Inverse folding.
């Protein structure tokens, strides 16, 4: 069967089971958009290529499958570099297809030419510049294999226009052996000696902590984690990237560690004698000053990526493995710590002394952002997926939303990409249309990518967006207040410009506003009733509200600042 | 040939804590940029780098990288290299367990006064003359990095026009423990 490269590309995506592509056409990718008309694959036409990338990420994070985005060459390709970087930092499986100028024009500064494989070399797991139509099926199959196995990540396929237009005899690689990846070996045999050393360390520990990172979700190891934690009674902390890997309602869950972590989670790590690190990477936002991080703890580091071992903290035992296999091996070996009663008594005291708190909102407003989040969470159906941008609203959501199951938290961790929330929520809803999807956003973030609500409306993707409108770039404002003597530099945005309700309405969405608690309850109730179009709510929140606890940058986690109402007592 | 040679120790081109990575890579465009980019991005230092087709010419090339094991732990460098999809195998060769060779080419201005002593210098080093014209010779030495250092110092007595070294290539010494390899 003779196919054009373009037809072969679309057919290859169908072979991979792709059901949704987020994209925007242009000159170099034009040939590929023609056979798309005859495909069963749903294409979601975005308004900016960055939106396509973040939607693909949201899709991937909510479904656990690779997200797919397709854009044209030059600026189309550079516009999607931010999402690719974001996916690389958070190990999100993405396949990004970019158009490229014809092979005869490459290197000649042709119209809309850019060296996108060169640009993305450092922010992709791998990339391909496809040289012939015959190679396209192999590139697609290899890209999905690379994106979704081992440590997942983004893979880019650059398709020159003449490659898409030329013809090939259709074939498709029958298995990994035909992917031509002689240097890629994502699975490793479990090192039994290392497992035995882990079991021995666990057996010796009296103050262990399960330090659970995003790799636990990537490994789909929530069930194994629950079984291991319950059998051993070891306390659990889940990082920003792992929220949902262990139920927040579980009595052994201490919450999120790190710069804005729960006091008991942060302090349990600091006092621990054994960190059982599961798919986490000792990020600076978790460790604070690294030399003072968990100073008395031995470290077990389980990760599928051996380059993480010793990158930041030297482990006592490194076990290269996916998390589920490692936990099953620990369980099979009966790994059990010593009696943890004394350890739990200490932890329970920290939890009692320093719970997550915030000031009660005044009846007349302004609203407390944490109260808004808790009110939305309380009325959201079980299994609701929540996305966020980056900043204060993200931290408050991570703290105050109760996550009960995997793949319900969609956020930008490592890269900290403002504007992630709205398109990521759209992608999550496209991937899991049966779920309610909320985006908890900030006013600064919302302004960066809000145009994708036009996409959401026109494609029938009814997400709900809560803007915590404090009229500031809030997290920067918080740092300027605390560390720059309240000298506010370029952080004021205005609560009224733009008018978020009118903007939402102009984009075909329902626009609502709440300035006090009664209005807040009313608009949440109204938003919950709307299931056909996107809803945007402008919640007017207190500009002076800050995220606590907080470990200031570069200091020890022992110097955690709790909420002002909790200070003064014994620490 | 089989006689063990002494470990050269520190020379101008080989810091004490250098390590040799013999890296088998797919012979695809951009592979060298991927390796160089990763080193730059991660702040790992390269002392020298040599690339050539390997024993299976069409498919693979061999890259010999001399790394500064003080700029980062060796296992970090190897771990990050191994993540590059086009990298097929990495042999980490400790200098003591390596046979290392390097090629040096130098063009030296000659005249009647210095010709005799230059010929002595070349003979002592085991270097060969590979090109000649009335005012200059180009000489070549293939040897250990230490021998190349010695020869380079000996040439300082002459007016050099140009000197060029390739950086070392290496293979594991025969009859020693097989070095740590991530060949799969």
């Amino acid at each position: 069967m003779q196919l054009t490269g373009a037809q072969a590309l679309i057919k290859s995506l169908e072979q991979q089971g792709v059901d949704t592509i987020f994209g925007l056409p242009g000159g170099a990718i034009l040939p590929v958009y023609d056979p798309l008309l005859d495909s069963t694959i749903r294409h979601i036409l975005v308004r900016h290529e960055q939106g396509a990338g973040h939607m693909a990420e949201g899709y991937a994070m909510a479904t656990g499958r690779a997200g797919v985005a397709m854009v044209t060459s030059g600026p189309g390709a550079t516009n999607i570099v931010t999402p690719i970087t974001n996916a690389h930092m958070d190990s999100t499986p993405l396949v990004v297809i970019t158009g490229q100028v014809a092979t005869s024009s490459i290197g000649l500064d042709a119209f809309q030419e850019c060296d996108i494989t060169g640009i993305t070399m450092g922010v992709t797991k791998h990339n391909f510049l496809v040289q012939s139509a015959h190679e396209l099926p192999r590139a697609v199959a290899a890209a999905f294999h690379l994106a979704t196995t081992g440590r997942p990540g983004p893979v880019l396929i650059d398709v020159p226009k003449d490659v898409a237009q030329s013809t090939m005899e259709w074939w498709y690689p029958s298995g990994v052996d035909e992917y031509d990846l002689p240097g890629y070996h994502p699975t490793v045999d479990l090192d039994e000696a290392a497992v035995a050393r882990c079991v021995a360390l666990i057996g010796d520990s009296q103050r262990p902590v399960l330090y659970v990172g995003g790799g636990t979700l990537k490994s789909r190891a929530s069930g194994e984690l629950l079984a291991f934690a319950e059998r051993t009674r070891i306390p659990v902390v889940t990082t920003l990237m792992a929220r949902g890997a262990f139920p927040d309602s579980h009595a052994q869950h201490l919450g999120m560690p790190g710069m804005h972590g729960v006091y008991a989670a942060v302090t349990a790590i600091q006092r621990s004698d054994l960190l059982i690190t599961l798919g986490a990477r000792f990020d600076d936002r978790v460790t604070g000053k690294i030399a003072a991080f968990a100073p008395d703890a031995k470290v077990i580091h389980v990760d599928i990526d051996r380059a993480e071992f010793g990158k930041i903290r030297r482990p006592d035992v490194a076990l290269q493995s996916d998390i589920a296999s490692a936990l099953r091996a620990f369980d099979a070996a009966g790994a059990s710590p010593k009696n943890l009663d004394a350890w739990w008594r200490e932890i329970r005291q920290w939890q009692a002394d320093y719970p997550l708190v915030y000031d009660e909102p005044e009846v007349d407003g302004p609203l407390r952002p944490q109260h808004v989040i808790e009110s939305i969470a309380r009325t959201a159906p079980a299994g609701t997926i929540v996305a966020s941008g980056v900043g204060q609203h993200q931290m408050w959501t991570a703290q105050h939303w109760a996550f009960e199951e995997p793949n319900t938290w969609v956020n930008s961790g490592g890269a900290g990409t403002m504007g992630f929330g709205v398109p990521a929520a759209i992608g999550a809803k496209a991937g899991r249309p049966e779920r309610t999807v909320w985006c908890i956003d900030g006013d600064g973030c919302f302004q960066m990518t809000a145009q994708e609500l036009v996409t959401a409306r026109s494609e029938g993707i009814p997400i709900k967006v809560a803007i915590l409108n404090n009229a500031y770039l809030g997290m920067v404002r918080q740092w300027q207040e605390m560390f720059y003597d309240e000298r506010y530099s370029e952080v004021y945005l205005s609560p009224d410009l733009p008018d978020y309700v009118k903007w939402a309405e102009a984009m075909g969405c329902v626009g609502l506003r709440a300035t006090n608690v009664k209005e807040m309850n009313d608009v949440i109730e109204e938003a919950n009733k709307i299931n056909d179009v996107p809803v945007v709510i402008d919640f007017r929140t207190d500009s002076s509200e800050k995220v606590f606890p907080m470990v200031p940058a570069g200091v020890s986690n022992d110097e955690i600042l709790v909420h002002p109402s909790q200070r003064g007592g014994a620490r | 040939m089989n006689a063990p040679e002494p470990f050269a120790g520190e020379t101008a081109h080989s810091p004490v804590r250098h390590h040799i990575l013999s890296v088998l890579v797919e012979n695809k465009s951009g592979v060298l940029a991927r390796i160089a980019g990763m080193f730059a991005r991660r702040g790992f230092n390269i002392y020298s780098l040599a690339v050539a087709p390997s024993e299976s010419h069409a498919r693979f090339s061999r890259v010999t990288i001399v790394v500064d094991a003080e700029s980062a732990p060796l296992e970090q460098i190897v771990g990050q290299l191994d993540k590059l999809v086009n990298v097929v195998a990495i042999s980490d060769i400790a200098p003591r367990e390596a046979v290392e060779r390097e090629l040096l080419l130098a063009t030296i201005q000659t005249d009647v006064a210095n010709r005799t002593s230059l010929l002595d210098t070349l003979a002592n080093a085991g270097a060969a003359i590979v090109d000649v014209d009335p005012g200059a010779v180009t000489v070549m030495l293939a040897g250990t990095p230490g021998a190349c250092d010695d020869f380079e110092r000996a040439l300082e007595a002459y007016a050099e026009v140009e000197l060029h070294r390739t950086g070392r290539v290496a293979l594991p010494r025969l009859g020693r423990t097989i070095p740590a390899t991530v060949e799969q």
In short: The two ends of chain B are 30 Å apart (CA to CA).
